[in-house]
Amino acid sequence: MREKNLVSKSNELINTRYNLNLQEQKLILTLASMVQPDDSEFKSYNFKVKEFMDLLEIKDKSTYKNLDKVIKSLMEKTFVIKKDSGEYIRLAWLSSAKYFKGNVTLEFSANLKPYLLMLKENYTSYKLENILKLKSCYSVRLFEILKSNLYKKILIIDIETLKYLLQADKKTYNLYGKFKEKILLKAQIELKEKTDIYFEFEEIKTGRKVTSLKFIIKSNKENKKLLSDNLKDISVENAETIEDKNIIILKELFHNQVSIKNLKKILESANNDIEKIKKIYEYSKTQKIDNLIGFMIKMVKDSNFEEPIKKDKDYKKIHNFTEREDYDYKKLEEGLLGWDNDEILESIEENKTIANEGSKMDFKGYENKNDINILNDVKNVLEGQLTAIFGELRYKTWIKPSVDNIYLENNKIKFRFSNEFVKNKFESEFENIALEIIKCIDNNFEIEKYII
């Protein structure tokens, strides 16, 4: 057994509740470190009792004599994993134990294979030495949970869930103050001193009560001993698997609107080419698509996809037009309408040619030609200024189709959207600026939105 052996566990196992004391955890993790990356079956893992006790720094002779009791207790303990399907699986840690002349032979339960063997994704690896000198079973568990989230750098978890995972939900730790003092602060010191990660945490309150914690997880670069020879460790640091990282990237790219199952399909179809997925997703925004997932899967499979060449247009910007609350509306109005700059007028005229040929305005509902002229002015000013503020790509992607289809009714500029997602995007990022621009044309105008 070597301190620098790697422990590899599936994140599903790490995030499962089980009741092991400190010695039992160290025994299981020491055995896990003896599993080789290419093992397809569990082997019988042999070690000398003295070697094991030295490794775990066990000096109590009574523990030596009662090692059989420790292993017997461990063999009797089970835990439950809940699958996404709703199925519950009860598992045991060990299937057998043998003793002979100062040697012990242990074997993992075969049902643990999916969680310790042939791990390809969604797992975490770390050096065994990280946990050997920890003095608290809670510190060991918290280390694993935080280590599995190191790639995200931040973990937000409600306190009751954390207590549940740590098996610390007893009456002893019912009060947050006691939980913080005896578990969190102690683990914070231990991990900083003895492991290759450390953490800071912030308390999140509901009313006056602390209900959640925000962990900021960092690599412990000061702990040179554990970080030495760390290339091997980093190469398999998974929850830092490539797929896990890419799933996080894609969740952000699609604004959490696509299920993980579909994200994995897209990722698999693209052979994990995250840049290609990004380019095709940007391209999808310029197209009228009924089934985004199907479109993405089909396009990422196409090895001949080429990113369309972007046209450069030099839109003239109004000086100092930034998103803030204290506009000089008189000057802004002059700027928006082009009264203070002939180049602005030229830019607006140029923007009139940038129209969606598929979206023609029906003017039958308007009472007179003046209403049509006003509406055209609104469209032209919006297009010119929103392009200048947000850039041509963002304007064409998120705003242009709706601006092309606006109409005026009872002092309401009505925006029409193809779906709820685009409408929400407009409301969260563009609506306030668009409203300020519209009110510079006529302060009585308001914005109204609906989905077609």
UniProtKB/TrEMBL annotation:
Where the record annotates domain Initiator Rep protein WH1, the positions are 7-147
Give the domain of life: Bacteria
Q: Which SUPFAM superfamilies match?
A: Winged helix' DNA-binding domain (SSF46785)
Pfam families per the UniProt record, alphabetical: Rep3_C (PF21205), Rep3_N (PF01051)
- Protein family according to the UniProt entry: Belongs to the initiator RepB protein family.
Q: State what protein this is by name.
A: Initiator RepB protein family
Hey, what's the signal peptide range on this chain?
A: none
Q: Which organism is it from?
A: Clostridium perfringens E str. JGS1987
Q: A GO biological process this protein is involved in?
A: DNA replication initiation
Gene Ontology MF annotations: DNA-directed DNA polymerase activity
